[in-house]
Amino acid sequence: MRNLILGAVITLLLLCLGGLAIATLGFLPTNADSTPPKVEQHIAMSAMDASMERHAPRLTNPVPPTDDNLIDGMKIYTMNCSSCHGGLDNKPSVLQHSFYPPVPQLIIYPLDDPEWHIYYAVRTGVRYTGMPSWSKALSEQDMWKVTAFLSRIEKLPPAVQDYWKKSTGVAPPAVDPKGEEHEHHN
Question: For residue 162, what are the domain limits?
Answer without folding.
Answer: 38-168
